[in-house]
Design goal:
The protein has 109 residues and is mainly alpha-helical. Helix content is 63%, strand content 0%. It has 2 helices and no strands. It has helices at residues 3-61, 64-73. The relative contact order is 0.04.
């Protein structure tokens, strides 16, 4: 064997070794990431379940009949048809009212 051929084989073996080591490292990172994703998905599932449970507890704790009774005690009533003013706001769906709404119902800024 000539020295050039030995040098070529040594370089090819070194490159093959480097490629294999990098491949094993990438596989390890992929496996680690997959485990991490699984753990995070389980945590998300647990948090969503806890959130839904708390939401349902809050929703069930509100008695709308008590709210209606308290509103009547405070003098609150439903709006009459002549009290409702419909308006259109061309700029957005959010309106801050600083003055009376015009009779034509159009708010221009």
């Amino acid at each position: 064997m000539s020295p050039g051929y030995v040098l070529f084989l040594a370089a090819a073996a070194a490159i093959a070794l480097i490629v294999c080591v990098n491949y094993v490292q990438l596989q390890s990172q992929i496996t680690s990431s997959a485990r991490n994703i699984t753990v995070l998905q389980e945590e998300l599932s647990d948090l969503e379940e806890a959130n839904n449970t708390r939401y349902n507890n809050v929703t069930n704790s509100v008695n709308m009949e008590q709210v209606r009774t308290r509103a009547e005690e405070l003098g609150m009533t439903y709006a009459e048809a002549d009290q409702i003013v419909e308006y259109s706001s061309p700029s957005s769906d959010y309106v801050e009212q600083y003055e009376s709404i015009p009779q034509d119902g159009v708010i221009v800024r």
